[in-house]
Amino acid sequence: MVAAAKLAQSILEQAATPILVLDREGCIVQANASAGQLAGESVLLRSFDDIFELRCSAEKDLTFAEILATTQTSGNIAGVQAIAGMTNGRTVPVIVNAGLLTGPDSGILGCIVTFYDISEVKRTEEALRESEERYKALFDSIQDSFSVGEVIVDAAGTPINWRYLDVNPAFERTFGTPRSEVIGRTHRELFPDESSYYWVRALGQVALSGQPAHLDHYASDRGRHYQAIVYQLEPGRFAAILSDVTERMHAVAELQRMDRIVKLAQKAGQSGVWEWDLATDAMTWSEEHFLLFGLESTASPTLQVWLSLIHEDDQGRVRTRLQELIRDSRTEFTAEFRRITRTGVRWFEVRAQVISSEGRAEKVVGITTDITQRKRLERDLLDSNHDLERFAYVASHDLQEPLRNITAFCQLLERQNRGRLEAESEQFLDIIVGGSRRMSTLISDLLQYSRVASDTSAPAPVDLNRVLETSLDNLKVQIEKSQARIIAEPLPTLSGIESLLVRVFQNLISNAIKYRSQARTPVVQVSAQRVNAEWLFSVVDNGIGFDKEYVKDIFTIFKRLHGAQEYSGAGIGLSIVKRVVERHGGRVFVETEIGQGSTFYFTLPANTTSADDPGPGARTV
Q1: 526 with 468: CB under 8 angstroms?
Q2: What is the pTM of this model?
């Protein structure tokens, strides 16, 4: 008996699990060292309930009385999880086991209670729970369809289908089927289309072989393009990330199509594109750019190589323009240069644009175009225009002399034979004289029209108030005869050719007076206002106006809206206005109302280097 008691005591002391022996009153009469370590203090001869507070749930505590009662009824307590709270405030998750102690006469002596510290188990469970939550969050947040499946094989071990074990929300969105209706069902049951056979074979092979795969498949029956990454989870099971790349493939195809179009456009337009990296000085040329300069595409172009291909007289100018482009942070530039080839001199035009990041120039991209043919056409056109203008001037000048002779002799004949000629003959003379005068006016107008293009004067700052005064002096007789009122607001000073701008104001004001209403005094208002990068001028009259269907034709040369018997003129005045305004980089248009008058508008570019504000005020002439 003594030996058995010593053995029991030895086992009790060496056990790593806390063991307590309680009497019928709940007093701890025996305990091993592990029990003291768990409690953090000596527990012998102390009340169990004073040292340990066992919380099994939010509503229930496990006291000594309940332990004793349960062991009396059931014989033991096994595997009850509880949180053991000690007097020092420490809490430990434990598993509680208890057994009844009886004497030789089966009388109840007390009970034995053991605790199993499951702190590490709980930490592992918490880590596993957090890991599962992270996996679930990742699983649900993946924008591509994610699925887990288990392969179904036939008797020969060949994949014939698979069963879905899980899918993410993106899968539900992509295929329009709720997760609850997917899990547990087979792929071919959900998708009985033709492409299912491809996916069953491909994913089944990954699940069985363990070899990951990147799949690319066009489902013709769906008209969709898919890419998938598949890997084995365990033999017979796989995970797959499926991406619908239809729009991406369409975008790639569109980019390829546009690339072909750009190449065709470069070839057709004899152009080539390039990019210059300012950090490395390296240039990237398109294949067409190499062909444009007759170089092999294996060459490594740099800025120096490109400049060396330019005519030596043009190199410095192009280099300077590029340096100004980068230094002044300008957005783009254009330059023309020559290159001597085996077939002669060829002309090129380069257009470039700076690409900046955070205000710092990083790259220059550009396009170079062979403009040799255009230069030849421009030269031929310039020569042709010069010849035509010279011909028009000479022809008009030489025609004036015979017309003057015809008019003079007809008038002499009329004076010498006045009263002796028949009425019909006198009428014929009047027709000849009138026609000659109109012909002379037409030739004079043609001379004015041709001089617009032939005038080689350089643009200079022009005070348009002075221009208007000159125009009004030229129209003094017409203004006084019609008793017209001219109301003019201050006008700006702009760059232009003064003699030509005089013709603009003179012709517009003359027209306004000529086509006046007989029912009221003619009033002409001249004004200008700044609109963004240009000045908008208006000449407003209260004349007869004209039908709006002619607003586009009114500036066409020789276009007349009235007969020669009603109003004089050859129909060239407004054509001269249009030609002068366009030569100055502007445009001209009109608004009109029959019986209410017309407003002729024209624009001129605003000054970019000096102020052109005319200031307030208006004057009446």
Answers
A1: yes
A2: 0.40
